[in-house]
């Protein structure tokens, strides 16, 4: 008998509602839990303009397994030769259901995220602080299995 042990995490990303806060660059996320790491997910709606000023975008992140409560989030942006490379994020909410219980965690970002070709300009966010430029290399990219809707606050 074969069991699918995948586990879904839900990421809701709040783009700041200040001038030029949105981005058209490629956004990636990795989750670091108490029991492992999953990602990197490329966050993109094929039919929607993600990460616009004042928008809230929600994604389903299909992990290979449950990695426990999330300790940190690795968030980074890669340029796509468009005119809005910097992105300002207020916060990210992570939700999951495990053993019938809903858990949610808020990660305050409150900073501008700049794009970088070499993955060295990224942001490692825990529930208490935001760190940048730790020069951690990231693994290969997986396009996120996403549902939901981005909308303006």
Automatic annotation (TrEMBL):
Name of the featured protein: PLAT domain-containing protein
Matches recorded under Gene3D superfamilies: PLAT/LH2 domain
Top-level division of the source organism's lineage: Bacteria
Domain PLAT: 7-127
PROSITE patterns given in the database record: PLAT
InterPro entries tied to this protein: Inner_ear_hair_cell_LOXHD, PLAT/LH2_dom, PLAT/LH2_dom_sf
